[in-house]
Amino acid sequence: GYAVENLVVHDMVFAVRRQLDLEFANLRIEVRGSRIKGNIEGYYGVTCRFADGQNYYAMVVGSDGWFGIGKKVLGLLTWLASGKDTTAVHTGTAPNLIRADCIGNKLVLWANGVKVAEVEDDSFSAGSVGVLVGTRDKTGYEALFDDYKVYEPVR
């Protein structure tokens, strides 16, 4: 697996392999993630259409059952959809299978095979992909990622 730790408050840290010649427009990302340590209010997930550290989409789940689809534009984070579903999102340190579909202007977040959020937004049309970890009031949240996959539709 690949571990990512966040040591800042109210922000996300990410691990992205950024290649300008390999940008994705329409894709599906799947990853298995789990909390290793930290406050239960932290969260983890994937990023799509990542332009740079100030501009990207985030599709995440939290250790307390929270989920969200967010976007960061010029460094300002906005949650386009969020909620809490402890039947779909496993809590504590239990692993979650996260699936994010970024197709056209539609962003869909799945947790363990259940669609938990869907929004439309066209702020970003293409970019890199990766994983991320976010915090609210406390630092030191760490998540472990495994079985990371990226799919592009056949043209």
Explain what you see.
With 155 residues, this protein is an all-beta fold. Helix content is 0%, strand content 61%. Strand 5 and strand 6 (66-73) form a beta hairpin. The relative contact order is 0.35. The model has no long low-confidence stretch (mean pLDDT 95).
Please mark out the parts with pLDDT under 50 across 5 or more consecutive residues, or reply none.
Answer: none
What is the straight-line distance between the termini?
A: 31 Å
- Helicity range: under 10%
Characterize the biggest β-sheet: 6 strands, antiparallel
The number of E-state strands comes to 12
Spatial order of strands in the largest sheet: 1-12-3-8-9-10
Using the alpha-carbon principal axes, give the shape.
globular
Relative strand content: over 45%
Mean pLDDT: 95
In terms of structural class, how would the helical and strand content be classed? Answer: mainly beta
Q: Helix and strand string, N-terminal first? A: EEEEEEEEEEEE
Radius of gyration: 14 Å
**What's the tally of helices?**
0
